[in-house]
Each structure stands twice: as structure tokens, then as C-alpha cells.
Design goal:
alpha/beta, FAD/NAD(P)-binding domain, Enolase-like, domain 1, seven-stranded mixed beta sheet, 13 helices, 22 strands, 23% strand
Length: 460
């Protein structure tokens, strides 16, 4: 069957690209062997954040007595919680299918492989031909030697999100975003959680300043989550009490389940790349140019399978931009201005450059901060932990970046992202009237602080 565009992969990048291509009048096919929505919707962003919200209620109930409201110990019905989470996912998957249908995208439920220029073969039989092929095949969890996902006691992030049980002791190998988010969820559910990170610092792949990490580590400790950095897990064996995890340096530790969360790798194998002469790099990423085009002119790639942050909104941005480029519009994506949110407790969100990176890039900077503890709304929410930070160029006052650690940081970062992406000055936020009492006031106060004219905190 002939199409103008064939998209391989139905995740946030793939389905967004397919829909926009169809909106532009291009005959478009999308091939996906698994559930529509990809990792983000089915076993990543959405189920994680649903469980984050649900378990936050458990944490809040446990301390409601501070306000004179006695709720009593929370009771967790794990199968019902899993059913609720799966219902959210199912609703959104159905929604994507409807959008694809209404926009006229032909959907094929199969595994796709390239079969020479302009041709894709399907595992169900038959083939598709297209002027342009878009690879949006996503990523997969990484395993490490000595720990196999074939052992049911070794969980991937997918396994953990399926809520098979609440282990009394859970060891998370990996102190990155995925590991810490799931550590937060299971600690709230009642597990005693230990995080092992081989590097000297947690969240090492995220551009965060020391103050932000210090607040997070203090909060993790208060939640009973033990974090061991510079600690490598080498192997495990059954023990009378569960599992004995052997460390490279230090005494073995006991656990009931192990969650392996050391990152994800591009899903670039078994795509038939050799039939068009595309060679992945040593990490499995597909090299593309600024137009998201591979070494084979008719093959493009987006999302987790190409270099850059593995974020759903990065993938969808690339997918839409690529589709628009087929209609003659240039692609212009600044990966440094893509915001990121981390659902630990407290939440962390960032956009643009940290203070450290801004200095390393040669900027003379203005930095402003404002603590949650000075926000009336935050105190009323019993969320005094965290701060807002803005970084601006000292010469032209253009906002270079922002970090927020605290309640609802994932929502609050959007104003800062708009400022960074729009090249706005720090005065744009400082002079804008913000509603009171609200959390977004904290960003305005941080901007005022950077300018040396703060009212509700001492100027730097």
C-alpha cells in the first residue's frame, strides 16, 4: 500500500507526527505492534504520575492530625489501585486511537522493519511504501550484568508500575529520575526503600544545582528512603530472609525485591537499518541532522531513538516539527529550552541553564531565589519545603534558566519555560502582576530578588 509518510512507532512522538502529517493532507500510515501511546502512556509518565498522586494522599492522611483532622491509618487495596491506574491509561489509549482515525491515519498493528529505501515490511504480512519513513520506536529499560529481568524478583520499571505487591524491603538500583520517582511511590505505599547509585551524586544526568539536590536528599531521608551514592551492586543471591545483594565495596544488604532502574536505551535494533545503510552509534542512537534526517535521505527519526533528553514532550515536539517540515517549514528546536519535571517529593522542575552551566558558558549571571516557606499559599498547603530560582544574564537580563523544587513544581515551570523560550528578560516576570495567594508568586519573588528589589525576602 502506498503512502506519502509511514511512521514506525505509536508513542508520543510517532502518533503526534502522524496526526500532523494527516492534517497537512499527506496520506499517512502508522505502524505499532504494542498499545498506542508507547512507553510514556502505558508504562512510564502517565501511570507513574497517577500513582504519585494516589500515594500522595496516603502521605497527607498520615500527617493530617497536624491540622486537627484525624483520618486514621490508610488502607491500600492494591488490585483496586492498579485497576484505577489502568483505567486512566485505557481511556487515553482509546482517545489516541480515535484521534488517529478521525484524522485519517491508517493504523497497522504489527512490527515494522525497513526493507530498502521507501519500503517497510510488516510482521503480519504485506508491506508499505512511502516517500518518507519516520522511525519513532522509543526506548527500552537497560539491564546490567548479574541482574536478569527473567527473575520475577528483579523488577523493571514496567514491573513496578504493574503493582504486583508491596515488598517490605525494596532496593532500587539507580538514582536517576525513574529510580527516585518509583522509590517515592513505594515508600509511600509502605516499603522500606534503599537506593543504590554507582555515581557520586543522584540525578547526575539532569542539570541541577547543588542547593536543589541538597533539598531533595534531605527530604528523601525524612521520608525514610536511604540513598547510597558511589555504591555499585554486583550480584545477588537468595537468602533465608529474601535476597542478599552483594556490593562492590561494603557489606551486603538484604532486600525482598530489586528494582533495576539504571536508565533506558534506544529501541533501534530489529528495524532493518542495514537495508538502507543506517548505522546506530555505540549507544544505539540513530544519528540525524538538524532536519531530523538520517544518512538515508528518505528516513527520518525522532524521540528516544535519537540523541537528546528522553522526554515525551521532546518526542512530540520533534514529531510535529518534522511533519511541518514536510510542508516546507524549517525545524528549529532548542533542546536547552525544553523543560523537565521530576516527580519526587518534593517535585523538581527545570528549564534552560542552571547557575553552574550558565557560569561555565561564560555568562555573568544574576540569580534570584525565593523559599516556599515564605509563601502564604505554600504554608496553607503544608508545603514549606523548597525554593524557586531564576538565572539571568547580568548584561541584558535575559532569563537563561529556572529551577523549582517544591509542591507542584511540574506545573509552575511553564511560566519560566515560556520566558526562556521567548527570550524574555527577568523584568518580564518581576513586573507581571501575579494573583495572591498563589504558588506562582514564588517565581515573581525570585525574579524580584535577582534584581535586588525583593519585598518578602532579604535581597542578595
Amino acid at each position: 500500500m502506498d503512502h506519502q509518510v509511514v511512521v514506525v512507532g505509536g508513542g508520543p512522538g510517532g502518533y503526534a507526527c502522524a496526526i500532523r502529517c494527516a492534517q497537512l493532507g499527506l496520506s499517512t500510515a502508522l505502524v505499532e505492534k504494542g498499545p498506542l501511546g508507547g512507553t510514556c502512556l502505558n508504562s512510564g509518565c502517565i501511570p507513574t504520575k497517577a500513582l504519585y498522586a494516589a500515594t500522595r494522599l496516603v502521605a497527607q492522611a498520615g500527617t493530617a492530625g497536624e491540622m486537627g483532622i484525624e483520618i486514621g491509618p490508610a488502607t491500600i487495596d492494591l488490585p483496586k489501585l492498579a485497576e484505577w491506574k489502568d483505567g486512566i491509561v485505557s481511556t487515553l489509549v482509546t482517545g489516541i486511537a480515535t484521534l488517529l482515525e478521525k484524522n485519517g491515519v491508517d493504523v497497522f498493528r504489527a512490527h515494522a522493519r525497513l526493507d530498502g529505501p521507501g519500503r517497510v515490511v510488516l510482521s503480519t504480512g504485506g508491506s508499505l511504501s512511502a516517500e518518507r519513513i519516520v522511525l519513532a520506536s522509543g526506548s527500552l529499560p537497560i539491564a546490567i550484568p548479574g541482574f536478569s529481568f527473567e527473575d520475577p524478583r528483579i523488577w523493571s520499571s514496567d514491573d513496578a508500575l504493574n503493582l504486583p505487591e508491596i515488598p517490605a524491603r525494596l532496593t532500587v538500583i539507580g538514582g536517576g529520575v525513574i529510580g527516585l520517582e518509583l522509590a517515592t511511590i513505594y515508600a509511600r505505599l509502605g516499603s522500606t526503600v534503599t537506593v543504590l547509585e554507582v555515581l557520586p551524586e543522584i540525578l547526575s544526568t539532569v542539570d541541577l544545582d547543588r542547593r536543589t539536590l541538597s533539598v531533595l536528599k534531605r527530604s528523601l531521608a525524612e521520608q525514610g528512603i536511604e540513598v547510597l551514592t558511589g555504591t555499585a551492586a554486583e550480584s545477588y543471591e537468595p537468602s533465608p530472609d529474601g535476597l542478599l545483594i552483594h556490593l562492590r565495596d561494603g557489606e551486603p544488604i538484604e532486600s525482598d525485591r530489586i528494582l533495576l532502574a539504571v536508565g533506558r536505551r534506544p529501541n533501534s535494533s530489529d528495524l532493518g537499518l542495514e537495508t538502507v545503510g543506517i548505522e546506530p552509534d555505540r549507544r544505539g542512537f540513530l544519528p540525524v541532522d538538524a532536519e531530523l534526517q538520517s544518512s538515508e535521505g528518505g528516513v527520518h527519526a525522532i524521540g528516544d531513538v535519537v540523541p537528546g533528553p528522553m522526554l515525551a514532550h521532546k518526542a512530540s515536539t520533534e514529531g510535529i516539527a518534522l511533519a511541518d517540515s514536510f510542508d516546507g517549514r524549517p525545524i528549529s528546536i532548542d533542546h536547552d529550552s525544553i523543560p523537565q519535571a521530576i516527580f519526587t517529593d518534593p517535585e523538581i522542575a527545570s528549564v534552560g541553564l542552571s547557575e553552574k552551566r550558565a557560569n561555565e558558558a561564560g555568562h555573568e549571571v544574576l540569580v534570584g531565589r525565593f523559599p516556599y516557606a515564605a509563601l502564604g499559599k505554600a504554608l496553607g498547603m503544608r508545603e514549606p519545603n523548597g525554593f524557586f530560582q531564576v538565572v539571568a544574564d547580568a548584561n541584558d537580563h535575559r532569563i537563561l534558566g529556572a529551577q523549582i523544587i517544591g509542591a507542584e513544581a511540574s506545573d509552575l515551570i511553564s511560566e519560566a519555560a515560556l520566558a526562556v523560550q521567548g527570550g524574555l528578560t527577568i523584568e518580564a516576570i518581576a513586573d507581571a502582576v501575579h494573583a495572591h495567594p498563589t504558588l506562582p508568586e514564588g517565581l515573581k519573588e525570585a525574579a524580584e530578588n535577582a534584581l535586588g528589589r525583593a519585598i518578602h525576602t532579604v535581597n542578595r
